[in-house]
Amino acid sequence: MSGSVLHAAIAPQRRAKVAGFALNIASIPQAVDLAIDHAARGKGFTFHTLNLDHVAKLRSNAAFRSSYRRATFVCADGWPIAWLANRAAGRRAFERTAGADLIEPLLQAAAERGLSVYLIGPGPRAQSAAVAELRRSAPGLVIAGAETPRVGMGDIAFERLAMAERIRASGANLCLLALGAPKQELLADALAPHCPSVGFLCVGAALNFIGGYTRRAPRWMRRSGLEWLWRLGAEPHRLAFRYAACAYVFMLLGIGADVVPAEERR
How far is residue 26 from each of residues 20, 132, 190, measured CA to CA in Å? Predict the structure, then answer.
């Protein structure tokens, strides 16, 4: 990537704040270019995908907020966050950049550049299906390692150090974490200092979707901003309360109310 492209991607005029957290990735092509550029140069990073569910959890989780403050890259995962970011920027600068849409073009680019990837999560069957699909859709992709840990069990500090050692030993350039929020963001934040040449991307349900383990909304619903309705219909008992909390947070953000402690804002 040229220096001018990199500068344009992270220049102040390309930033916007939502809930006090700065977004500095405006589109999927930018995300792919920056991640590949950093990985190819051995420059580690963490990549978070801000959505309303994250904002709701950020309100009460100080460790989660800290991981967002330290994140190298933050994008708008969801139409509401993209809309709020564009309103803050005063122009249409940010596109919806969902982790589920980012992974395939990212790993295709990684395969072309000879960069390898390490997978953490989601579960054994979903991960196996995702690996098979990624090998089909990104020929030549090197999967340096994969595991499905039970995060939070046992000696957490020891387990994270052991995991960091496995990632370093694998020689991976990129690491995808598909554990759900805030587990994946907290784990990426903890691993990053021990793996300074690895790019950690928190991708949520992306591997479930890629492997066909979880059925994703039709493309027309995703383009219309209705993916949430599809998911609610598929898992009403699990998602009803979550989406109610998201709606409340969106209302607060829409009227400009503070949703995270002001003294912690970036």
Answer: 17, 30, 26
Pick the more confident residue, 229 or 84.
Answer: 84
For residue 245, give both structure tokens: 């909390």
Range of the domain at 159: 3-210
* Mean pLDDT calculated for residue range 1-9: 43
Q: Rounded to whole angstroms, how far apart are CA atoms 260 and 253?
A: 11
Q: Cα separations (Å) of 236 from 79, 138, 167, 230, 244?
A: 21, 34, 37, 10, 11
In a domain, 101, yes or no: yes
Q: What CATH number is given to the structural domain containing 178?
A: 3.40.50
Q: What is the mean pLDDT of residues 166-194?
A: 97
Q: How many separate domains does the chain show?
A: 1
Does residue 136 lie in a domain region?
yes
Beta bridge partners of 147: 120
Specify the range with the lowest mean pLDDT, choosing from 127-131, 135-139, 195-199, 239-243.
239-243
The pLDDT value recorded for residue 249 is 95
Q: Which residues of 67-95 are buried (b: 16+ CB within 10 A; e: fewer)?
A: bbeebbbbbbbbbbbbbbbbebbeeebbb
- Number of residues that make up the chain: 266
Mean pLDDT calculated for residue range 218-229: 77
pLDDT tens column, 166-179: 999 999 999 999 99
Distance CA 195, CA 22 (A): 24
Identity of the amino acid at 58:
L
The bridge status of strand 21-23 relative to strand 16-18 is antiparallel
Ranges of H-type helices in 41-155:
52-58, 62-70, 79-89, 99-113, 124-137
Number of H helices, E strands in the chain: 13, 8
